[in-house]
Amino acid sequence: MAVGLTLIFGVMRVVNFAHGDMMVWGMYLAFVLSTRAGIDPYVSFVVCAAALFVLGVAVQRGLVDRILAAPHEMQILLMLGVALVLENTALLAFGPEPARVRSPLARLTWDVGPLYVDVARLVTFGLAIVLTLALSLFLFHTERGRLIRAAADNPYGAMVIGTDVRRVYATAFGIGAACVGAAGALVSPILPFQPPTGLSLSVTSFNIVIIGGMGSLLGAFIGGLLVSVAESLGAVFLRPSLKELFSFSLLILILLLRPAGLFGRRAS
Amino acid sequence: MLELRDVDAAYGDIRVLSGVTLAVGTGEIVALLGPNGSGKTTLLTSIAGLLRPRGGTIRWEGEDLATVPAHLVVERGLALVPEGRRLFGGMTVEDNLELGAFAPRARRHRAEGFARVYALFPDLRERRRQLVRSLSGGQQQMVAVGRALMTNPRLLMLDEPSLGIAPRLVVSIFAALAEINRAGVGVFLVEQNVQAALTLAHRAYLLESGRIAGQGRAADLLHDPHVRRAYLGPLAVRT
Fold first, then answer.
1. A164 interaction partners in chain B (CB closer than 8 Å)
2. End-to-end distance of chain B based on CA atoms, in angstroms?
3. How many CB atoms lie within 10 A of CB A14?
4. How confident is the model over A145-176, as pLDDT tens digits?
5. CB-based burial of residue A167 (10 Å sphere; 0-12 exposed, 13-18 middle, 19+ buried)?
6. Of the candidates B50, B87, B95, which has its C-beta nearest A146's C-beta?
7. pLDDT in tens, A255-264
8. What is the helix, strand, coil percentage profile of chain B, to 5?
9. Is residue A203 situated within a structural domain?
10. How does residue A43 score in pLDDT terms, banded at 50, 70 and 90?
11. How near does any CA of chain B get to the CA of A161, in Å?
12. Helical H runs in A112-164?
């Protein structure tokens, strides 16, 4: 999820405040596919990614494109607006009750010596690694990926060599949204959700992206691990309700010691 | 063949070009000279489709470019080496060059393109795995010219290629431009280095405050008293 956010920011310098709400839409889509069509979320995440890709492209083409040159506060207003619209349409469509997707995998655990391993979490973790690797392969070893990196590096330079930069941006936003759609589907059996969940998910992923370094894929991935470990430890050693204390302390620590984030490049 | 007729251009309310008419023939080297702020860069960005002129027409091989989006102008064989180079600094020399040949028409000629660029600038072959950010200004300018060549252009437009570059490298870049032109590629050169530009070019135009203030054969302009006084400084008048 954080990987998607960092991609969008890295390429377009737009902070996607609707990220968490897009994720909630991924979750509800997995929910509908599971309850209506009986498709397991570990299969339907592909559909959710595709659907969110389309949503991402539409948001970029229809809205973000118009304000890329505008001052930053315009972008913030726009993206918060998109977030509100997404959250409230989810509320209208699905109601305020918490939902959870059932998957047979979520009921399995393995005993490994003294440990219990939750199979659903393991599969989610594995797929997250696979998706992050696939994305970095795409960005670093395919032509279209290189073009996205080039447009992020120097948009004017990309235009001069005949790139349709608007199209590259739409692809990048689409892929960012697809990541979060897949992430939503994959955590839907683990995490109960309701429409307002989006905000806290956005906050968590900003936290991760800032810790890892804005615009760095590896940073987003490592940041995600750090934040979740910090929160789990916090939940075990203090109280579950205090777990955010740990992740935000981590954020403050990183901001003090390495303002650009663990893997971020210092702004020149 | 590139033809501009009565081109007007403006940023908001500020008029930059008024009634510019000029032509660059097939395989010709034409220089555009003028002081800072005279509208030279605006003229090039208008031709490249990055800025839409307010009036007049820009024709390339008979086609009006008014409705052609910037990314398709490159497909038609017009390449721009922009001011400040605008390279992809975080990527290698090779990646930068390869991206130049991204468009479908150039892709077919990618292998030839690499051979051509490395023959012109042997330095770049040795440094092909280095990040562009780590190169000197002159080397970066070579990458910028190389990247534009990779688009397989019929007209190469350059915006101040000598700006901020060691004189020795300016010489080799200008030699490369002559070489590129011998292969039949037209060159449209915007320069402040008037001496070097007029030595290389066949013809030149003078742009002052957004208007064409003069034109002629480069050799004649090099000896023209007005040009020498205005562009080469007072010392040049006596020689």
1. 69, 71
2. 36
3. 21
4. 899 989 888 888 899 888 898 899 999 999 98
5. middle
6. B95
7. 888 877 777 7
8. 40, 25, 30
9. no
10. confident
11. 5
12. 119-141, 143-153, 155-160
3-state secondary structure of B19: strand
Q: How far is B102 from chain A (nearest CA, A)?
A: 8
Task: Flag if B99 and A150 touch (Cβ within 8 Å).
Answer: yes
Do A146 and B87 make contact, defined as CB atoms within 8 angstroms? Answer: no
Probe site for chain B from A140, A149, A159, A266 (most B CB atoms < 10 A): A159
Q: Assess if residue A8 is contained within a domain.
A: yes
pLDDT in tens, B139-162: 999 999 999 999 999 999 999 998
Is residue B141 a contact partner of residue B161, using CB atoms and an 8 Å limit? Answer: yes
A153 and B90 in contact by Cβ < 8 A? yes
What confidence score (pLDDT) does residue A1 get?
58
Asked whether the beta carbons of residue A159 and residue B72 sit closer than 8 angstroms, the reply is no
Residue-level pLDDT at A208: 83
Please tell me which of the candidates A143, A154, A165 has its beta carbon nearest to residue B88. A154
Q: What is the ipTM of this complex?
A: 0.84
Binary contact (B151, A156; C-beta < 8 A): no
For A159, the domain range is 2-196
Q: What is the pLDDT of residues B163-205, one digit of tens each?
A: 888 888 899 999 999 999 999 999 999 998 888 999 999 999 9
Question: If you search the block for the tokens 């052609």, which residue do you land on?
Answer: B68
Residue A173 lies in a domain: yes
Sort out which chain B residues have CB atoms less than 8 A from A159's CB and list them: 50, 70-71
Distance from CA of A85 to the nearest CA of B (A): 33
Q: How many domains does chain A have?
A: 1
Inside any domain, residue A112: yes
Asked whether the beta carbons of residue A153 and residue B89 sit closer than 8 angstroms, the reply is: yes
Are B102 and A162 in contact (CB < 8 Å)?
Answer: yes
The predicted pLDDT at position A261 comes to: 77
Q: What is the dihedral of CA B107, B113, B114, B116, to 10 degrees?
A: 180
In chain B, which ranges are continuous DSSP H helix? Answer: 40-47, 70-75, 93-100, 104-107, 110-120, 122-126, 137-150, 167-182, 194-200, 218-222, 225-231, 235-238
Hey, which residues does B29 pair with through a beta bridge? B187
Q: Are B16 and B10 in contact (CB under 8 A)?
A: yes
Least CA distance to A166: which residue of chain B? B71
8 Å CB contact of A160 and B86: yes
Strands B78-81 and B203-208: unpaired
Q: Which two tokens stand for residue A53?
A: 């890709």
- Over 50: is that where the pLDDT of B112 sits? yes
User: Which comes out higher in pLDDT, residue A211 or B43?
Assistant: B43
Of B50, B87, B100, the CB nearest to A159: B50
